[in-house]
Structure formats: structure tokens, C-alpha cells
Amino acid sequence: MSIELKKRFDRIVDILVQLQSKRVVKAQELADRFEVSLRTIYRDIKSLEQAGVPLIGEAGTGYSIMEGYRLPPVSFSREEALSFVATEKLAQKFLDKESSQRYSAALLKIKAILKSNDKDLLSSMEDQIVMKQQAVPLFLDQVPHILSSALEAISLKKQFEVNYQGIRDEQAMARTIEPIGIVHESGFWYIVAYCLKRQDFRQFRSDRFESAKITETNFSKSHISIANYLAQKKQDEQPKSLVKLSVKREIASHLRWERNYYGFVKEIVGPEWVEMHFQSPDLDLEFPRWLMMFADHVRSIEPERLRKQVISLLEESLNTIKKQGES
After folding, report:
1. Those residues with Cβ within 8 angstroms of residue 100's Cβ, 6 or more apart along the chain or in another chain
2. Which fold has domain 241-324?
3. What is the model's pTM?
4. Which CATH class is domain 3-65?
5. Which residue ranges make up each domain of the chain?
6. Mind listing the pLDDT tens digit for each residue in 88-116?
7. 225-269: per-residue pLDDT in tens?
8. Is 163 exposed, middle or buried (0-12, 13-18, 19+ CB in 10 A)?
9. For 146-235, CATH number?
10. Rounded CA gap, 124 and 118, in Å?
């Protein structure tokens, strides 16, 4: 079998798996997933139909398999079987306790159909992958179900009663929210929801919930999708300023660990200095405070406004330390 023919065969099998995993699959979705043209997908769909797979749909809309038709589970490759170990470890670290347990239960059913050799391989590899917990827990112990409950509230369109402590709150406050989606960014999970108290959408960080429960009350109104919310949020962001820094080469590696959180665009590496470019919406607080950690190793800072803000913060810090020494 030629390489191209094998690739096509594997793709057609994967398309069949996709069709069995969702009620309707759009041709464009398949084309994007396998990085091929729509024409190629239409040809592969035709091959499945010729092989006797009862498909419903047409080009330009979507495809589904006739109800009741199912093939036996597709066997997994050695590499796919090994990926189960890593994904289970990731679930244990990044999902709440209840969601992680549900994932492990579902994965156990998948493991049950593996070949004996693959089962032994997974057992031997489970102890070889260690996921250390991050310094700030993603969830509080008293709410081990926040993600799974939020997902259930989203699917049922039921209101969510929570006790939540925002960054400016001295203590947790009771709120009723209507969640529309979940986002993971900057190392934390955020539940995006319409807050009845604020009469607007808010992002609620997973580690700030002290309690949460689904009510029997339906959403107060229809809401936009999470995709539309994120698109609108991007439009509403403050205009970004171009920032240029020249950093000593031996220090540049330390900035690389966190620079993506601050709008990093590109870098130009020189013999002794690295010029880094950023697009930042915040030149008054967040960016300059981050830059203060490396200020003694930075040769030039643009724009001038940012340079002045760093100087002001450094002088303020120095004055505060001096006053503490005098008291």
C-alpha cells in the first residue's frame, strides 16, 4: 500500500469515527480537522457510502449516520493507547475532583477494549508521569464539583447560586449567575456567566468559589454564545501600545517564561542584547510592575510613557522602604 493510499485510508477511518462521535458533522469541520480541501472530504464521504455506511446529508450542510447503525469500536494504536495515560494525569491536575472522577470512569471503559499488551503497557507507564500541583489551587476543597456543576447548569440552562469572592471583595458574597461557557486562560479556569446582580456578563475564577449549587430556576433570558462573548470582549479591549525592550541576552531567557502573558509579539536577537516587542493594553500597572523585576538589566524602554511609569514605581518603592527603615 502506497503512503498516499494509507493516509487516505486512515483519514476515512478517522472520518467514520468522527461521524459516530457527533450527531451532525459539517464537511468544513472535517476539512479543517484533517487539513484537506472540501473536495477531498466529499470524495472520502462518497467512499464511505460506497462501502455501505448509511449516511444522511449533503454537501454544504452536514452529515450524520443513520440511527441504529454502529460499527464495533475501532482499535487503538500503541501511541494512542499511551496518550490515555497523559490525558488522565492532565485531567487529575486541571479538572475539579468530580469531573476528574467522571473522566477516569469513562476512560476505564475505553481501556477495557484494549489489547492485553496495551493494558500492561499503560499499567507500567502510569507511575512514570508525575503532575505536580500548582502553587495556587485551581479549586477550593469545599467546591470539588464547580466545573461539572457549571457544565450541567449550562446544558440545562438553569441558574447557579454561588458564594464568590472577587478580587476586590473582603469576603465571599452570594450571587445568582447564568453560566454560558468555561474558559481556561493564564493558568486558571473561568466560568463566563450573566450576573443577575450586575446585570452584565462576568468571568468568575474557579478558585474563588466557596459554594455553588444548581437551582430549578430557568435562565431569565436568552444569552449570547461563549464564542460571541469572547469576540465582543476582544473588540472592547483597550487599544494596545507597542512596547520595545532591549534586554541583556543572559537575562532574556527569564522573560521568555512569562512574556506571552504580557502580549509578546517578536524578538530580535543581537550579540549582547535581545530586543523584545510587545502589544500591551496596560502601561500603567500590570506591565510596568512585571518589568520592574528585570529593570536593572534593560537598556532601553519604549514608549517614553512606560519608561516614566517604571521610574515612578521604582522611586515610590524606594521611598516606602526608606520610611520603613526610619520608623
Report:
1. 91, 92
2. Alpha-Beta Plaits (3.30.70)
3. 0.67
4. mainly alpha
5. 3-65, 78-128, 146-235, 241-324
6. 888 888 898 888 888 888 888 777 777 78
7. 999 999 988 887 778 889 999 999 999 989 988 888 888 999 999
8. middle
9. 2.30.30
10. 10
